[in-house]
Amino acid sequence: MPELPEVETSRRGISPYVVGNEVSKVTIRQRQLRWPISAAISRELPGQTIDTLERRAKYLLFKTATGTMLLHLGMSGRLCIVKHGTPATTHDHVDIEFANGLLLRFNDARRFGSLLWARDPTKHRLLCNLGPEPLSGDFDGAYLWQRARGRKVAIKQFIMNANIVVGVGNIYASESLFRAGIDPRRQAQRVSRVRADRLAATIKEVLAEAIQAGGTTLRDFLGSDGEPGYFQQDLRVYDREDSPCRECHAPIRRIVQGQRATYFCRRCQR
DNA sequence: ACTGGCACCTGGGCGC
DNA sequence: TGCGCCCAGGTGCCAG
């Protein structure tokens, strides 16, 4: 589920039901996520209004008058909006109830997600060292190329490093490298200035397209359905091992880099 | 300062 | 049908 486009899709989906509403109750069924859920969540949140719902990297930021709730979906986290009294099922770890009769439910089978409290999120240890947002003006080829000086790590792992740029997950790393025609194994420092421009552009393009596609799944958010998203049909290499490249028909290869699967076309990517 | 490897956790799919 | 194995969209932390 949660790459940056999915997190952004979730943000847009739940925003209308959350922003401007008062929290009436917090129910925590499973406190042990990636880190224990901050005790401050159930202490601070009830009685407060969610003023804004923002996203930084793959974190959702629920801002209130006294602080911010940070929510990360990890690998398997999902959010849905349901009515009060809707029975919880397996892995429904947290409910944030609102005075309007609805509640925000957090479900996370693998429990790699997290729910934390911060007075000032910009100073939080998990957020303060993050790289720029990929869709912002702060991220471009010049920046990417500059940061890659002296870096021998493979370009795929380099763009997945959140200190360099946030939000490029395993799927979109492969997809943007394919579109840029760059071999994922190439050392970061060996990507030319011109191709760094190209790569920054394809990262923005792929993420923007995926948000667009994810946006089409927003409709039945209230129904709490797990939403598949439509970007899957636009994937050119991810999860397509041995299938023909859509450009040259050579078989798509699967390799492992940093214990993660990488998919690419040997002929199209150099 | 970089890099690679491990850790956290559950569930689905596959081969036998 | 059951069991063992591998894989999964993230990312902080550790040792070298």
Please bin the fraction of helical residues: 10-25%
Number of helical elements: 6
Distance between the termini: 30 Å
SSE series: HEHEEEEEEEHHHHEE
Coarse structural class? alpha+beta
Q: Largest sheet, if any?
A: 4 strands, antiparallel
Rounded mean pLDDT score? 93
Give the strand order, joined by hyphens, for the main sheet: 1-6-7-5
Count the E strands.
10
Spatial shape: elongated
Q: Which runs of at least 5 residues are low in confidence (pLDDT < 50)? A: 215-226
Task: From the alpha carbons, calculate the radius of gyration and give it in angstroms.
Answer: 20 Å
Strand content: 15-25%
Give structural notes:
With 270 residues, the chain is α+β, with helices and mostly antiparallel strands. 25% of the residues lie in helices and 21% in strands. The chain is built from 6 helices and 10 strands. It is elongated. The two termini are 30 Å apart. The structure holds a DNA duplex (16 and 16 nucleotides).
